[in-house]
Write the structure tokens for this entry.
Amino acid sequence: MLPSREAPIRGLRRLGRALTGSLSAGDALVAETMPAYPRRQRAARKTLADMIARHRQDARPEGAANCRTPPHPAPTGFSSSDDLGPREVMAAFDALPLQAREILALVVAEDLPYETAASILDIPLSVAMARLTVARTMLDCLIHGQNPMPLRLVQ
Amino acid sequence: MMTELAQDDLNRLVDGRHSPALQEALSQRVQREDPALAAQIEAWRRQSEALRTALNDLADLPASPWLALYTPPASAYRKILAFLAILLVFGLGIAAGLVGRWALNF
């Protein structure tokens, strides 16, 4: 557990882990970004944006995630999200493309408003919402190893 | 029957970001008109919760050594206190020197 004086770092570590796929690489990303870590909320958002930008510079090109093959061997009896454990969800999450991980990390893990997440990612709100829907669809797909039900979406 | 939902409404429904009244009304409508979509929304909700819990648990693990050594930047208040402390030590040094000189002359 981190000491209380370092509590603000917890959010950055969470984002670092989500972006990089490993705790040590995430910590390294946080350490690179942290010297300018500010206390004010607005500046903290800038720190999140800086982390994402820094990670994008170093990120390798990714292949397309294949929903037909789960990224992990499904445990015996695993048939629904009711049985979803941290190992299963993280394996599926780590198999997502970077854009999907970014939006899910900001909206789901950091619980940021959609507008703030869009601002951090420097994309329009409508694009952020579309990415969020696709990310959720892909995550579900990767967890269950099958294509999700078709959704009729209205822009 | 397939319910038509805007992406904004769909995601807000999953994340519980509608007003309570609208959240309830939309949930009931989807449940009534499209149980498959309602099940999908519920699955996404559980997956979001599982992802949040997993990332929180990971963030609570011990930090890497270089990160554990990190000390947050000092606040302006602490900087002022440190400056005053340096001034005080410097002043005490001068005072001690003056007293010593006076004692030697005495």
